[in-house]
Amino acid sequence: MCPGAGTCPRRGGTDTCPRRERNNPVIPAAELRRFGLPHAYAQGIPADVVHRVMGNLGEDTQDDNPGRWTHEWSSLALAAEARGRDLEAVRYYTMARFPYVDGPDREAAQRAGVEAFDRWRKRVRGISRLDLPFDGAGFACWAAGLSQRNRLPLILVLGGITSTKEQWAPLLADAGRLGAAVVVTELPGVGENTLTYGTDSTGMLTYLVDLLGRAADASRTCVVGLSFGGHLALRHALADNRVQGLVSAGAPVRDFFIRAAHHVPLPRLMTLTLSHLTRTPVDLLPASLADWAVEEERLSRLRTTVAYAAGRDDEIAPPSDVRLLERSVPHLRLVETGSLGGRPEQAAETRLWLLSQALRMVGTASAVRRAASARARVLRARRRLAGTSAGAPA
């Protein structure tokens, strides 16, 4: 379905799309701003750029042009490409296709982002692409450090319901310093992953770890899973003892799904995105999520060490899920802040903490780990001095 009338700079000039369907759901601009802000900061997009785009969207949330968001970010991406800044363009295209591909404009942004990333990684060298058929569909990965002769510990990275694999470019570029093979991919339905997201999606991770075991030490696997990616990784770790560590931020565990099943209202953006990824009509979504909860008894049997970053204002992982992890997970490292990514420095602090924990779990790159941990502590100290919410030590 087409996101609606608007301009598409990639197609050139002003283009009123003739294929907009009247029943095409519109994501409120207020929610695009609210959820898009931490999404932009997580990629390191400068705050002044973020606020300029948000300001250009205007304040009217009743009659929003649903194509405006994509146009604003795609225009920045095209300008970055013209200057030869492909990695910068990737970040803007990732924002343009946020939260999911619902028509030709966001599809063009998704495709252009992958192309820009491909150009960038060929200049960086050492980053390869894996196109993997699975279950009648398929998905793609970017990988660094894989070798059949020198099998390194594996760091497998999985984003959330709006996160593309291209967002992890800095981690892939630094793989040589980390002493680990790094592989990044996407949740089913996100980006280039054509699978359907569901309770059986753990099969994708099992298949992937099996495959990567040929060129990495899969017996020392750490999965970095953000948000819903963390939830999928958690369910996978319950059945796969090769996962020695799980690092997550804002992953829903149990109560989010119980509340959704009981029709507790979710943000419109989240509802539409989950409906799209699971290929479930919106009115049937609550019932379909009922079986996704991970129960306390199963968590108590988890052998994997879990490092979990929680935000007290998180709209996806409620505080009750965090308390559930505290009660039940035998090996838990928890850090809590007021917000995981509401400000650039908070997003940077979370990224550094996640990296330090992943390296600690695979037992490599101690110097890099110490530097990341120290930098996270500096940012945390600054935040405390500024009077914001305090977090636990890294």
From TrEMBL:
* One Pfam entry name: FrsA-like
What keywords appear on the UniProt entry? Hydrolase
Which residues does UniProt call coiled coil?
A: none
Which region ranges are annotated with the description Disordered? Answer: 1-22
Q: Name one GO molecular function term.
A: hydrolase activity
Note the InterPro entries from the entry. Answer: AB_hydrolase_fold (IPR029058), FrsA-like (IPR010520)
Report what the protein is called.
Answer: Alpha/beta fold hydrolase
